[in-house]
User: Fold Enoyl-CoA hydratase/carnithine racemase from Rhizobium leucaenae.
Amino acid sequence: MAEVKVSVEGFLATITVSRPEKLNAFDIDMLKALAAACDEVEANASARVAILTGEGKAFSAGGDIKAWGGMAANEFGHAWVRFGHRVFERLATLRMPVIAALNGHALGGGLELAAAADIRIAESEIRIGLPETSLGMVPGWSGTQRLTKRFGAQIVRRMVLGGEMFSAEEARGYGLVDAVVETGTVLSAARDYAARVAARGPAALEIAKLMIASANGEDNGSAVEALGSILVAKTGDLKEGVAAFAGKRAAEFKGEW
Assistant:
């Protein structure tokens, strides 16, 4: 879809949110496009690392007020907040490491988008924050949940309750971003880091990402089940079970790992 672009070059997938005339602010169609982009990247067997970035001057200004401002309460809660939450969770749980290349400001939902990545690299002039309470609303796409787990409650309090916004260097000091680079160089820096990641074992990367998420209290149930399923899928018992089912016979399990 036009609002989210996907390209794959060798091991590297790039997801670009592309609504530059709106500072890459999200509407419903853009959320749907991001979900489709995640599915496309996940299905590409050659993709081992993904970069997430924005087109134009901003990484993302969050949710487009015109998209949600007129919604009734029930529609706002379900069609906007809960749907957006599911889409961002889809991004956060991609099988491969994701590097957010912050080419511009990341505000509100834009910061929540960046937080769904595993690594964040920011250009020096950007600012980040969670300004939702100034509009009489609260962060809805895991700003109070994933951000608190990953960065700590106090820094989230300062952004949400105090309305503080941080420069790239301040954000790096608080652990909100991992590196700061000169303006215009973030994609190059992200690609360099992606090559560093891709040099490691892809299976180990996927499993390690699940293990870290589980240790951090992020979606423990699905992480544990995914790890268990991957392990079982490698066993002789599973192969025997499938073969027995296909042959309409009793399985002869041997406990082979």
User: Anything to note?
Assistant: The mean pLDDT is 93. The two ends are 43 Å apart (CA to CA).
